[in-house]
Request: fold
Amino acid sequence: MTLRLRAVEVTLVVVALGIAASWPLTAHAISPLLVPAFLVAAAATLLVLLRPAYGIAIVAAAAPLTNFQPAGVQGIKPFQLLLPALAGGVLVYAILLGRNRAATPGATRLSIAVLVFVGAAVASSIQALDPAETIKKLVVLLTAAGVFYGTLEVCRSRRERLVVVGGVLLGLLIASGQGVLQKYLGATGEYGIVADGSVVGRVQGSFGHPNGYGGFLAVLVPLATAVAFTRGFGEPRRWLAVLALALAVPAITFTYARGAIVALVFGSLLWLALLRRRIALPIAVVIGVAAVAVAPAALKERFDPAGASEDITLRTDIWSASLDIYSSEPLLGVGLNNFGVAYRELPTSLRSTSQRRLLHQSQVLVPPHAQSLYLNILAEEGIIGFAAFVAFAFAAVAVCFRSARLPDAVGRAVGLGVGAGLFTLAVHSVVEVTLVGEVALPLFALLAVAAGFVGEREGATSGG
Reply:
């Protein structure tokens, strides 16, 4: 026994010395981040093998870093490779464990809806105008589905579900911290607004656009609020939620994303009106007073109807073009992430007002999507994809509704927070396309968590 322990100790020392010796060599030849990244990956792998729920939590926490690009490294976004690999690895590992799971009706319906939703996207991508353009969005969607099914398989207990919730809150904290830091350092992105005669920069974290960044924050803020006011989550998670909220509120303000801010307010109030009518009106009054008293002047000017008129006209033109694209391929659409490809092929004629509007007499501007999730799905996935999306949306809302009515305070808070996030996403999706993006990873994980709480209650009630 003593010899075996000594052999282990010697082996660990040799490995540590080897790593220490390799760091200067790899730092000079490849990158100084190679060895630290390897150590972090090794530690994460060991943690996932011992506690698979932490693998899901890591994916949810790192979701806002999907498009993060390390300084000095061109064309490499490591999290676009790591997150799908980790989500898929956790799912495969959970399946190999082979634990039997008694599926609940709510989880079963939602599982089928997710499968159909993803299947429609795959079918649309196979016959896309440009199949290569579908890969990025398809990987995101498949990763989100892997997170959903992995959470269902791995998170059998309350403790494991709370690990995932903690990961989502950490992701919100990371995303919010990025925005606040960018504002403090003056490192805002290329997008800005004109307020009071001067240009004001907009923060966007690691996201491609401030609107998408604002949408991510808006969807997760209700969950953080619910956790902060629910004792059952324990002090560490509640303080994590409070800290995430303290940074998320200024971060979403500094995005100046009108759609995300309006969606957060109205989406949350609609969900509360459905479940907690008595508190919906007082909360609406508090929000209104706070908006008038605290909101910065630049944000107030952002909501000036006169300044929004041109944006409305532009969106209307793009929406008109999306219907033209849908009419060309009504069943399965033109393919996931192929809106821009199809837009380029639209005929420039007198009846195509959207093309005339975007030419500006000198250049063609090609929008990347339809500026509306609903029209974008119609254009890219056709009526079949849209029907699959509606089925998924109804199943997701149904699970959140049932979770929000549980006697367990923790399960109830998850249902309230995730349901409000879904309604926020639904309102925001009228003017933006964010579902098949960074927000999909924590959202699909939370849906599985809510389904788990519902299943736990149904199993206890039926005596299973």
Summary: Residues 352-363 have pLDDT under 50 and may be disordered. The longest strand covers residues 192-195. The beta strands are 192-195, 198-201. The CA atoms of residues 140 and 242 lie 29 Å apart.
